[in-house]
Queue: 2 jobs
Job 1
Amino acid sequence: MDPDWWRDAVVYQVYPRSFADSDADGLGDLRGVISRVDYLRGLGIDAVWLSPFYPSPLADGGYDVVDYRDVDSRLGTLADLDDLIEALHEAGIRLIIDIVPNHSSSEHPWFRAALASPRGSEERERYVFMEGAGADGSEPPSDWQSHFGGSAWERTPDGQFYLHLFAEEQPDFNWSHPDVRKEFLAILGFWSDRGVDGFRIDVAHTLVKDLAHPLRSQPTIDSLLPEDGSDPLYDRDELHQIYREWRELFDRYDPPRMAVAEAWVPASRRVRYASPESLGQAFNFDLLRAPWDAAAFAEIIARNLRFADEAHSSSTWVLSNHDVVRHATRYALPDGADLDAWLLEGRPLGPAQALQGDRRARAAAMLVLALPGSVYLYQGEELGLHEVSEIGIQDLQDPIWRRSEGRQKGRDGCRVPLPWTAAGRSFGFGANGSHLPQPRWFASHAADVEERDPGSMLSLYRSAIALRRLLRTEGGVSGLPAVRRDGDLVVIEREGGLTSVTNFSSEPVRWSHGGRVLLSSSDLTSEPTIPGETTVWFGELHESSIAEEAGS
Ligand code: NOJ
């Protein structure tokens, strides 16, 4: 089997509780994913990244894990997971699962034992317990902040504090403890033995902290990190010792297991996580934060191609995931808009805004699919879903809402269960309701509607992914592309004959370099122009390949 399959893969993120519900309890599950494997095959993806399915009290959407070797009973069983692996593999699709090594759930047996044991005990050493500051020890030990708002320290009934960089139900492990290191190696081995093909490593940049006394001040969360690894909490060089051990384990399998780091670090530091001795690949989140702007996109693309090449890795391209406002909506709102404020207002987009978002989202999808490297898609983006801003506060699940004391609504708006059919109580998500309310406008984005419409977002994704595959195998498209900005145009020229041109302005721009049009994200009216907010692929494929592709 090709050990490098992941380098150019199109990976589809499944957030299992919101994908498909097979048992009518309103929560998506593994049998639900199995029931949609044909859809995934039809989309043409190479791999699924499955967000956490482990037993969890759901304090943070499953990123609070009680048992790293099991399946939450509401989502199925280990046997269902085995069946999912088999069904995906039969469809030629690999499976990447989420590993959450920075913290467990506060319901994890180790943390329960730690709370039940006295200060200074071996049980407490596996987490980060400390005495408080101030004359009577009632102040948090440092000014460290939780990503979800408030202090990163929680006091226990006996007066000690424990560290949680996320919710208080997510205590941080102490990665200097040998039990923690051993346990995660065993967990990675457990899943690799079961046939899982790779791992997405949750907050891979946070595991190791500088806990030397006195604790250093770090009152901001990780937005502006130093480039020398000197932050007390994030992106420390010692992390890569851990990942080197993991790499040794991954490389014992055939093909080696892949890993991709979720590391919110400066682009120049990403190479460390992406190097072959470490995790091998790292998410590049630059496009998640980029405005709709040709110069910004061209610079990000060129820079990340360079970094990935330096790391002997391949780049990754991400427009959306389960943590951010969906990109169709980001592109619908004015550049620089305060997304939290917009969510709090709870007003849906106006029709003209939504159309602009759709048009740009189509162009952006084709732009990233023209690039070498792995493209990570988030469930529902292929249906052109927008963020659901209308969720009432009584229905919010994200701990961000509570911990920010109502200043931020959080991430539920991109986690609303998918619409599979225009009709039905939960738009075909399941036979019953859905754990987050779906808006009425989901009907027009339902998969069964889009399947019948050659102009839909789903049809565009299918065509672009199929062509991408064809261009690689039959067109011989390979290597690093030339990336060029020409005014409002971003031009990607790939060896082997694919040229992708994206027009970021809303007006048509002349483009007379010719070439045969393979695909366009909007209707082409008068050549030789690229319509506003459109990507066009020009290429050299043989007639027969194109005919086959059109017929498939
Ligand atoms: C990153 C995950 O993507 C996010 O959903 C989660 O809340 C945090 N890590 C904590 O695990």
Job 2
Amino acid sequence: MRYVRFGALAVGFLCLTACTRTMENASSVTDLAEVSVFAMDTYMYLTAYGSAAETALAQAETRIAELENKWSVTLETSEIYAINHSKGTPVSVSDETSSLLRFSLDMSEQTDGALDCTLYPVLSAWGFTTGSYQIPSETLLAQRFAQTGYEKVQCNGSTVTLPEGMQIDLGAVAKGYVGDLLAEQLRAQHVTSALLDLGGNIQAVGTKPDGSAWRIGLRNPFSEETFAVLEVADLAVVTSGGYERYFVGEDGETYWHILDPETGQPARSGLASVTIVGQEGRRCDALSTALFVMGREKAEALWRQAGDFEMVLVTDTGEVFLTEGLEDVFSLQQDYADMPTEIIRR
Ligand code: ADP
Ligand code: MG
């Protein structure tokens, strides 16, 4: 019961594998380049315009593979694998890995522990790491739960020390960080118009070639449809939702892949999806996961306090709450015109 996870998606993407060839033909006319790759357990679609686009996207693809090789939990040669199998001994990692880990730990502090990169043993008890889903017994859950806690992870310079039995997984922030690194690389290569869709993590570089904003579709968490569109330039748009990966247990309940680090159970905060808009993909990614766990009230409080991001919350009951900074760039799709929508003000 796994699926393609489109939280936010670029409106207008119609093709998967057939794109590249079609676009190659088109590229000589429009300088459009497009690449689709499967990496980090998701489909990624990269689109860029301009004379530098084709070379830049080829290099972006290489970069994605490099980062996946560092951060994969399952690949035996990855740095995360080395940390997870270190049996408590210090491990030396690359700057990128230590920086991502430090960032994740910092975001855990900022979100009162709602984000926690040490949940892997619990996620695997639920089968979210393999797709063999099950409701874990209380004994198993308690045993796995004891092996978590981001405060126990030490990251000093390039050295990481993880207590024996614990395992980390940076999946909740990695794609956001990849988006930041790719956008930086593209800009350095003089690409001024690109849209990176990293499995629902959208990173926009500049505007569309004609100078207009990118139109990013937000998925209705209760169906496969786009319920609203955000118009953005040079920003990241990241969505987390329970619908992305879930199973229905023998008890008829739905269990999804975002866990509450306080209980080890799927987070039930009254939200069905959280979309974060901001400058940094990694921050948006961390916040989308954390605010899904925290729920609307705490999310609003953090929004007021932080001041550097905007958000769209969809509740379990299908209400939409969006922060005032998005008021002018958010629009409901025609079929959703009467969806109850409220603006959150400062
Ligand atoms: P996705 O990567 O599925 O698009 P997220 O960025 O929200 O969405 O990350 C969810 C992933 O992070 C889960 O699949 C799981 O591996 C892990 N995870 C689940 N709950 C948490 C949590 N509270 N903190 C950190 N990581 C989590
Ligand atoms: Mg996330």
